[in-house]
Amino acid sequence: MERPNAWKGYGDDQLADLNRICEDYKSFISDNKTERECCAAAVELARAAGYEDLEERIASGAPLSAGDKVYAVNRGKTLMLVHLGTSPLTEGVNILGAHIDSPRLDVKQDPVDEKNELVTLDTHYYGGIKKYQWVAMPLAIHGVVAKKDGSVVNVVIGEKADDPVFCISDLLPHLGAQQMSKKATEVIEGEMLDVLVGNRPIVVDADAEKDEDAEKSPVKAGVLNILRDALGIEEEDLLSAELEVVPAGAARDLGLDRSMILGYGQDDRVCAYTSLVAQLECEAPARTAVTLLVDKEEIGSVGATGMTSNFFENVMAEVLELAGEHGALALRRCLARSNMLSSDVSAGFDPAFASVFEPKNSCYLGHGLTFNKFTGSRGKGGSNDADAEYIATIRRVMDEGGVAWQTAELGKVDAGGGGTIAYILAVYGMNVIDCGVPVLSMHAPWEATSKADVYEAYRGYRAFLKLA
């Protein structure tokens, strides 16, 4: 059952719309490389589209009715958007759920170190990465530093043309015989992912008051002086910082035909952005439309901002209350009767690594939005396994919406596997299936997608919110 290449069916109008979506998407992932940045940017877009802060509605006691649009934010890292439909909430809602965290390097709490007049920041990698991919490439630092007085300093260094960048050094091949004999998992060890940030020592004035720290570590002292002068940050402030090391630079067109996109964090911001735009462009839905953009998926969806927190359920309870559908039973009925697309990427077939794919059950770049009946690994362990009836509904919705779509598994049986947030929402008894964009080089610093698949994801998510 080969699915056609989506590019072959586009006319001029659709190509223009595709380019609009993809240009905006490239800007979004270039400007927003952390979950905080994605959340803040999404809120700005939502407010421009007429969404109101749910907290303000709760404070005013103003009821919610069909057509109302509200959003809720959890610790600046998770966002939920709700567009009230004409049908009662207890009949269920249509949910798009994607994650906005991506694999990266997190700066440790006590990170600054000087050895042999080179200053580095110690890091701890976040999510599943191939550590050797992160060395000898330009890196940027994004994040926040929270100070004891309650103020928060936003940090973005390495993205502007005149900004400095950072890197992790690697061993030259001339001295690398022993290194090259190691397994890929051991070539670069976790504690070797130290980010190089300085080499220039300060000059200690002989007549000035003695500073033992500066005399002992003059390069580190110079780096700390820069942080103090430029950002007002002391070394101790790094104890309460969230600084993320990410690839420096913007997403770019990939290929002579400009048919693809190369960029950081496309897992899973390609699905997050297309879900967001589909939600914001949703008009007069019958069933209430909900989009969830969550944190911590790459490390198991844990914590207060992960999908396993009660944030989603709490917000739905508040919405039901303001909509006049009161009580725990109304909430349970709403959740159990809902439909969800767990909007997460899939592994695109890569002919360079064909041995780990089963071609007939793989997704291909340019062939549209991908549905994974199940993910998990080794006997579907840890999987949400969507039922046949729901898949039939999804087939109808996509075909009625004229969406190019395909199905896939995540590689050959026993070759590996992966997980998403799907099983977490399925706990409520709702219909859930994984669905997203095929990606090459997933979890690498730079990932590749097809513009056609980005566009079909946007179209598929719009069709789902309207027709499911």
Shape: globular
Distance between the termini: 24 Å
CATH superfamily of the largest domain: Zn peptidases
Strand proportion: 15-25%
In short:
The chain is of the alpha/beta class. It has 13 helices and 22 strands.
Topology:
Blueprint: H1 12-31, H2 35-48, E1 52-53, H3 54-60, E2 69-74, E3 78-83, E4 94-99, E5 104-115, E6 118-126, E7 139-146, E8 152-157, H4 177-180, H5 184-187, E9 195-198, H6 212-216, H7 218-231, E10 241-247, E11 252-254, E12 260-263, H8 266-280, E13 289-294, H9 311-322, H10 328-336, E14 339-343, E15 346-347, E16 369-372, E17 376-377, H11 388-400, E18 405-407, E19 417-418, H12 422-426, E20 431-436, E21 438-439, E22 447-450, H13 451-467
Parallel strand pairs: 1-2, 4-13, 4-14, 14-20, 15-21, 16-18
Antiparallel strand pairs: 2-3, 3-13, 5-6, 5-10, 6-9, 7-8, 7-10, 11-12, 12-22, 16-20, 17-19
Write structural notes for this entry.
The chain has a nine-stranded mixed β-sheet with strand order 1-2-3-13-4-14-20-16-18, sandwiched between helices. It has a six-stranded antiparallel β-sheet with strand order 8-7-10-5-6-9. Strands 11-12-22 form a three-stranded antiparallel β-sheet. It has 13 helices and 22 strands. With 468 residues, it is α/β, with parallel strands linked by helices. The protein starts with 11 loop residues before the first helix and ends with a helix. Strand 7 (139-146) and strand 8 (152-157) form a beta hairpin.
